[in-house]
Amino acid sequence: MTEKISYQDKPWLKHYAKEVPHSIDYVEMCLPDMLEKTAGEFPDRTALICQDYFVTFSELREMVNRFATCLHDFGIGMGDPVAVLLPTCIQSVVAYYAILKLGGIAVMNNPMYADRELKYQYNDSGAKILICLDLLANRMIKLRPETGITHIVYTSLNDYLPEQNSDSGQPVVAVEDSENLYHWKDCMLKYSPDPPEVDLKWDETAVFQYTGGTTGLSKGAILTHRNLCSMIQMYAAWFHDGKKGEETMMAASPVFHILGMQVAQNLSIYMGWRNVLLPKPATEFILEAINKYRPSYSPLVPTHYIGMLQHPDLKDTDLTCFKGAFSGGASLPVNVLHSFEEISKAEICEGFGMSETSPQTHLNPYRGGGPRKPGSIGIPWIDTEVRIVDLETGEKDMPVGEAGEMLFRGPQVTKGYHNKPEETSVSITPDGWLHSGDIARMDEDGYFYVVDRKKDMVISGGYNIYPREVEEVFYQDSRVNKVAVIGIPDEKRGENVKAFVTLKQGEEATTEQLMEFCRERLAKYKWPVQIEIRDSLPESNVGKILKKDLKAEELLKN
Question: I need a labelling partner for 360 at 20 to 30 A (CA). Which of 222, 226, 484, 517 fits?
């Protein structure tokens, strides 16, 4: 039966909820147009809440226009990249939309990055203006001579606090004097909300979204207004029970990351939802925000779910406000999904995506759709084509049910990498198919399963071993908190399996006990030859375990 099904048949369409269209006639609306439209429809509706400071949509529009006028005075116009180095906060949203208002390109950077990483992204993007947090300003002033940055605007999380808060408007750190250095609040007071009109096209570049760098040097995916706004319209159609102007989003995933940028930030503005911004998305702040603001939706990563389930304040938190929650960034262990859903009564839609896909290509069906299959990344999004091809040539479609590299094509897929024509030609075929670098398979219902990263696959004695499969076995052990499996060099077998494990708080286990657990559940050639129990594992800002760091450690040992 499976042999008769092809990827071109799109067997997944039958699992869409009846309210979800198979295709969309997209409104060619650029991101700044979304804000203008929503501010016109819901001017007095709360748009942003950050540290108990409230901003309405009309106030947000005025703030964006003021800062756009400022950036124009600094020389920013059509096609000019501007770097943003901020956590999830009001200023980050304002800066993003102000840049786009002028036809500029937003270059969102991770505030946790080292100077070496930031220097590379500033120079690769060509940014001349930087908006950063005061806590980082002195570092950036010192770094500036090694980059093309000419102007720096710095701001503080204290710039927007309720008046009754004694820290309101107080600087967090002293920022040293420097040429072309400006304070955010001074810019907002100085400039009028009258930026120049720009004839912005749907195919103009909106964002250089740098990849997470979990496998090497980050690349700037070129994302257009078409890419981003098409995806937003897909989200609005998929989550069909979301009512315009009535819901609350919680931005726990950072808006400098593509998941937070699109789902938490841009979808909320498109839908007229209030958005609770969390500059510090630690578990206690997430639970506090849930109790206080009762969010309907939130894009979360596995670290958030695991953190909430293990936090002592969970017993005092009512999670039943959620209609739906998203899970992305990394694989969500099945036991975590079930535990969170049982407590919250929400539907967690686990999906899949990349910086290059604005951000998603797959999601499990939402209310009224087909079954959600735990462990599956779900079914392809509206207007999204997906194929599984052979690993050798990358051209031959694999039979349904068999693993190969996953490719996709759709309106949300990048047109290439900034300044990297060779990498673009390797990753994207002439007819628009993006190579994901992930090994996956599709079942006969059209659901997809990521087996592993192509680069992470361990070849031991001629056997292909998928680390994710071994990791899932470890996650079945109730003592295990997090696990990462990599290949380590072996003279005889080429590679062997090594597992790095952290235990849940209060749990104890020896490496031999963990090994015994694996032996009963894995073929012998998949057994780890080493298990290392650690206090923590290296992670990215969205909870992806940085296997490249673990591999680097092992290479140093050898």
Answer: 484
